[in-house]
Amino acid sequence: MSTKEENTLLKTIIETQASRIKEQEETIHELRKMVAELQSLKANLEETLEEFRRQFFGVKSEKTSSKSKEDSQTEKKSVTVKEHKRERKPKATREELYANLPITEIICPVKDEDRYCDWCNAEMVPVTSKFVREEIRITPAKIERIHYLQEVLVCPECHKDHDGSFKAGVVPKSLFPHSPASASAVAYVIFDKGFMGLPYYRMETAFKQLGARIPRETLANWCILAAKKYLLPVFNRLHKELLKRDIIHADETTCQVLREDGREAQSTSYMWIYSTGTDGLPGIVLYEYQPGRGGAYPQEFLSGFHGKLQCDGYQGYNKVDDVQLICCSAHARRKFYEALPAEKKKTIKLLDVNSRETIKEPEIPQKDLEKYIPAEIGVAYFNKLFYLERTYKDLSPEERQAKRLEQEVPIWENFFGWLGTLHPTNGSKLEKAVNYAQNHKDTLQGYLQDGRCELSNNKAERNAKSYAVGRKNFLFHTSVNGAIASSVIYSLVETAKANNLNVFQYIYTLLLYMPGYTDKSEGIEQLMPWSDFIQEHCSGLIDVETVTVENHPELPLSKK
Predict the structure, then answer these.
(1) Per the count of CB atoms within 10 A, which of 36, 139, 186, 535 is most buried?
(2) Tens of pLDDT along 37-61?
């Protein structure tokens, strides 16, 4: 074999080996990629399984392997729980507890046969009445039928000449034509629905116990009519005021409507919630029913608002025009908390700005970080922020902003610097927490620029919970009109609560006056929850006996 042939053969062998090596490298790369994907899938499946176990079986079943079961049977693990103290409010006196209740004095007299002196038999006279004790007496709700009789007058002199001169008394208009519903009855139903969270079938049963058979369909129609005719103009006025504010909190929660054109009964709809922030002005809380969760709904409802919008990280809020989004830190912290193992969750407490517990200032791990899992460190960063916010609660907005810039900005810088060092498993809960925080880096820190803004969106979430409590009882809305009526009712109930009003008294007052002022802006203005008239008449106890449809004070409108 010639040298040329040897070189050709050698070259062929080298090329073949090189090709095999390349194929092996590609195979190794593919296998490594597959291993990584399988590890990610394994981590996700373990997290999913852990979550299912927690949901279905509770704490007892949060074990991930047979080895852990054996360990739990052979040795008991000691868990150190961080101690905390709860601030005990001074115990309220009975006078403070019952200060708003009217007092009825009942004198217990001496029997007639004992009112004579045992010594001289002279009749004794009262000297004083000595206080012995007090008790709370409750009179159950009473339903009665009111028959309006119109007085008719005739002139007797004219009548002598076989002529008639008549006058008739003015009868108050009914709340709804041809309906026995009154302002007090409808206010009672609205209060039970929006404040107590009772479904109509329970109200129907309760009314039956009180002697009245009122079908649930009738009760629902009362609420729908009242909301559409009399409460909606008040809602619209509150909406206009809301759009003028500088800060709005927003959130949404699910609901179900059985009968809606073009949609199945099982379709998921949404109740959107919008509320004012801590701007020092009267509170407003509005609910709006919509069939979906698209960003077009808040975009339309908040059209004309150009302030700061506090919300969670849902992308739909990005469609709201000309606003500054401020993302909720409680949501970001919750994702790190969800990435914790079950045993770790038992030892870590999520701090809240409004908590009454006295808790030691949390420390953010700085040394020996290998002793902590990343999710634990993430929760620690947010807990530190919430702890500091608690110390700023009583400060003015300007002072609060200055404190934040001084103490909280370094925490955020360290937090995002620490995030950059993490390499979480693909698809894991930790990766979701890290991505969430990094994707909302600017909006999470937006609250730092205004002392009136809050670290979290818990304000709107609490309002969502008020609706969720009722939803748990009534389960669904039968119609779209019912869902819209509920949104109006919940809006006025929660707004009344935000302004420290007696909720029933406020709804009752609206139903008393709105029939005469549905299209009169000046009258509606006097019925706003912050007006002097409403604050005077709706901050005390319920009064439906002296303030009635036929006898109630006029609204203090300006005279032109």
Answers:
(1) 186
(2) 676 667 667 666 766 666 666 544 3
- Owning domain of residue 337: 329-456
Provide the pLDDT for residue 33. Answer: 74
CB 457 within 8 A of CB 249: yes
Q: Say what the alpha-carbon torsion angle 525, 527, 530, 534 is, to the nearest 10 degrees.
A: 140
CA-to-CA distance for 347 and 329, rounded, in angstroms?
Answer: 21
Per mean pLDDT, which range of 85-89, 338-342, 415-419, 449-453 is the poorest? 85-89
| Cβ contact 263:239 at 8 Å | no
Task: Kindly state whether residues 437 and 476 are assigned to the same domain.
Answer: no
Q: Are residues 189 and 290 in the same domain?
A: yes
Q: Over the chain, what is the mean pLDDT?
A: 87
Evaluate whether 324 touches 262 at the Cβ level (below 8 Å).
Answer: no
User: What is the distance between the alpha carbons of residues 295 and 303, in angstroms, rounded to a whole number?
Assistant: 12
How many domains does the chain divide into? 2
Tell me how far apart the alpha carbons of residues 392 and 384 are, in angstroms, rounded to a whole number: 13
Q: What is the pLDDT of residue 69?
A: 40
For 80-107, the pLDDT digits (tens) are 444 545 556 677 788 888 887 888 898 9
**Token duo for residue 438:** 């990094």
Distance of alpha carbon 148 from alpha carbon 480, whole angstroms? 35
In a domain, 43, yes or no: no
d(CA 150, CA 94): 47
Last residue of a domain, one of 434, 456, 478: 456
* 54 inside domain: no
Whether 494 and 535 share a structural domain: yes
Is the domain of 372 the same as that of 503? no
* Same domain, residue pair 432 and 486: no
| Token pair 């969106």 in the structure block, residue | 457
Residues 316 and 333 in one domain: no
Give yes or no: residues 177 and 271 share one domain. Answer: yes
Residue-wise pLDDT for 208-250, tens only, equals: 999 999 999 999 999 999 999 999 999 999 999 999 999 999 9
CB 146 within 8 A of CB 182: yes
Whether residue 294 is found in the same domain as residue 159: yes
For residues 347 and 78, the answer to whether their CB atoms sit within 8 Å is no
Say whether 560 sits in a helix, a strand or coil.
Answer: coil
Q: Does residue 117 sit within a domain?
A: no
Predicted TM-score (pTM) of this structure = 0.81
